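ESCALATION

Customer reports they have been waiting on this structure for their group meeting. Please prioritize. Original submission:
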Amino acid sequence: MFAQVYQKRPQRLRVRALAATARATTGRQNQLPVVPDQVFVDNAIKEGMYGLLLGTLAVEKSRDPHVRTFAENMIRDNQRLNIELTSIAERKGITPAKVLDPQQRTMMQQLSQLSGQDFDCRFLVAALNEHKTALETLKQETQAGRDKDLQRLASNILPKLRSHLNLGRKAKAMLETRFR
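Update from on-call: job pushed to the front of the queue and completed.
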């Protein structure tokens, strides 16, 4: 039953579900659960693909220079992340996910139908949410992951991701100020 519920939940809820399951089975509330490497790789690859696609769509559709800069950074850094993560996963014999989650696909479809200010606002909300989810995933791996290479990669990516999140927040604030 856990597997069925697990597959239907959004990524951030999956990490929390894993944590709750680990606490229930170990009886220890303060210890972080060990997230299997496959789960981390799948979540990180999906978030990387999603970030790459969001960025690409924003570069095509947005006319706002702050949004475009944010999107270009997303593209560049998600490409690097996906290459590094895929390389590590292949060396470890882990097969990375190849498709987005249904929620991510739905958001991409919705965004592709928007333009102008509507697009920019919805894109920034989606991108910031993606960054927050990715931060949770990476923090979890740095604190509780088993594989040292994956932990190191997650640790190296965290500062860049925090920088992106701040850049996205600034772009959103600029957009909100302009359209008040």
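Sent to customer with the following note: Residues 101 and 134 are 14 Å apart (CA to CA).
Escalation resolved.
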